[in-house]
Amino acid sequence: MQLGFDLGADPLPKVEPAFSGAQAFSMAISDWMGPQKGAAKLFAHPIETHVGTLVAICDATHLHLLEFADRKELPKEMAKLGALIGTIAPGQTRITRDLQEQLSAYFDGTLENFNIPMTLHGTDFTKTVWRALLELPFGKTTSYGDLSITLGNPTATRAIARANGANQIAIVIPCHRVIGADGSLTGYAGGLWRKRALLELEGVF
């Protein structure tokens, strides 16, 4: 599908796979995680999309992390998740395959709502913010200020912005739908070009 993004002075960068193949991905996991002990508890797999490679980490029943492969915080997030749950190895589960199918449908324009069971890893406050993000409809945006009012804490705009930026399940938890009060595309960990691309895909622009 040709997405036809109208990015003006900021054209969509040429997107190449982050890993040359399964062996390169396996080596990246080894580099990021360092020595690990015990049988794998979580399985990591790259998913190619129109806006770059995502790394999905799942177990047999839930998605735990979905991040762009070029996000600088990814190795640290994976190490923290591994320390919490156990060994992370390359591989797929049923959840990975379901996620891959749903992401493909999303980018093809045939899916608006994801149906993927997730385990959220964060503080009670960040989880509250992420659950509020899940209530944002496809093609609709909100501001950090409006989100803080929705959560009944109008003075927490900055904390909500930080929680938004700490989201570890990209696209599925749609932090890209939060923009500035003036309509500007404020910070997005995956890059503002991706944020704009996702919002254009959803018909916001």
Can you walk through the features of this model?
The protein is an alpha/beta fold. The protein has two domains: 22-108, Double Stranded RNA Binding Domain (2-Layer Sandwich); 124-201, Arc Repressor Mutant, subunit A (Orthogonal Bundle). The protein is built from seven helices and six strands, in the order H-E-E-E-H-E-H-H-E-H-H-E-H. The chain has helices at residues 22-33, 74-85, 94-108, 124-133, 144-150, 157-165, 192-201; strands spanning 42-49, 52-58, 63-68, 88-90, 142-143, 178-179. The two termini are 18 Å apart.
Task: Give the topology, please.
Elements: H1 22-33, E1 42-49, E2 52-58, E3 63-68, H2 74-85, E4 88-90, H3 94-108, H4 124-133, E5 142-143, H5 144-150, H6 157-165, E6 178-179, H7 192-201
Parallel strand pairs: 1-4, 5-6
Antiparallel strand pairs: 1-2, 2-3
